[in-house]
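Example 3.
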Amino acid sequence: MDVLIKYSDQFVSGFWVTFQLCLLSAIGALVVGTAVAVLRISPVPPLRAVGTAYVTVFRNMPLTIVMFFCAFALPTIGVNGNFLKIPLLDQLFRRLGTDLPFFRLAVIALTLYTAAFVCEALRAGINAVPAGQAEAARSLGLTFTQNLRHVVLPQAWKAAIVPLGSVIIAMIKNSALAGFFGVVGDLSSVADRLTGAGGEPIIPVFIGISIGYLIMTIPLGLLLDRIEKRRAVAR
Amino acid sequence: MKNQQASVLYDAPGPRAKRVTLIGSIVVLAAVVAGLYYFVYLPLERNGQFTEEKWGPLLIPGYEFEGVDAFALVWQRIWEGAQMTLLAAVLAIVVSVAAGTALAIARVQLGGLRSRRFSTLLGNPVVTTVDSPNATPTRLRGVEAGGLRGLVWTGNALLRGYVEIARGLPVVITIFFVARFGPTVGLNLEPLWYLVIGLGIYNSVVIAEILRSGMAGLPGGQAEAASALGLSTFQTTRIILLPQAFKVMLPALISQLVVVLKDTSLGFIISYEDLLNVGKQIVGTLGNPIQVYTVIAVMFITANYALSKLAQYVQHRLATGKKTKDVAAAAPTVVETGVDGTGPI
């Protein structure tokens, strides 16, 4: 157990890198996912097709391949994710501004992959709103946008919050893959370094790394359980 | 159903709206094509990603590279990789379903015992003395009952903790540590088995939870009727609840198969010779990562798309084909948990 104390600073810094990665990707995924969901319910067929294609491709592709593309293919065509060097944001998240692009590319990969699932969660939420609601709104003369904004989306949001939460939990877990794709210093790369080159005993390192992930996933899961139970009673 | 909901949001288009939609469609199509051309095709073209030597080994039969039939070799390797991926996925799903079922039964059993006070141990003094002449005094038997309750409680807590931890950890981390930890305790297996164990640990828990929620979703009358017939808790679970839960949860289970298939690709971190690793080797020789990974991605997308369509079809059959009330009643929960893609990632 000495390992846990000896390397506690590495575990903590690894946790922060993973946390930053997750936070940025979660924001990105929510934004992109909402955009794709809007595409998928729009009245213009080609837009719907684009949304459907996006979801089909990213939902059925392993994250590993998305990561491969983002880590190796994007730099080949000259994309280093430099557009993520947003002035104030890179002061807050130092990794965004560093010259090694892998952190930014990992954010892009996680965002693109998770967005497909965010879109599906939102769409499932919209489908959960009874058709009568939208029909009533329309018969009152609300337009498509008004209908969405005042009637459908507020209700859809309630139905979508739990699925969205599970998507985010899954994303936190998926972020572990980034450490094996050159993101230096996150939890999984700390695990790799300590047990590989560092030659430290496996179990204590495993415990340290696990705590890092469980701190994020278990409370979120319990919170979701609670929301779900409360809603089940309210119904 | 989905499209119906979407079309409820706006009116059936009149002539003007149809015109607007048509014009909008054309504009959007043009924009998409232009966007693809300028942001995908041109950068790739400028980097020489559409040349024959990049795509040839993958697409042109009989393409030669340094004097060997590269096309045949590449596809032979890809085929081997695909077989390895499938093998790992099938083994992992079999292990997961078996372990998941056992775990679900254990949790239901222990959960059922939790409400018992083991008062039979305190029991009727006359019967016990007849059964065993030197029966323990009631007070001691009270201690035994308390001990059993403590045991049940501990078992429950352990299982619950195991489930939460196995579910809360990334699969990559599980696989990685299984592969690193195995050799230190003298467990020298092939990478395949580390991968299967790692995937099994995670997915068995997920499947156990799917089955448990399936059993919980069944009408209460099923379990009540079973216990009225005199079946024990275990018999009730095994004969009555589990088969129905399997059936109701079949779509969710198939969706989980998609997840397993996708997760086998994590085998590359423990150098399992799966599709991705083969791809890496090919890239090492031919130097065309974009092309090789595109082909592999297409293979994964096709297989998983087919599987998720199958899940949808099975669910559709379950929801409409059979008019039995219990199946129809339980089906909507499947939509929420599985097939619509919000659950499995």
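Chain B is about 80% helix and 0% strand. Residues 125-131, 325-344 of chain B have pLDDT under 50 and may be disordered.
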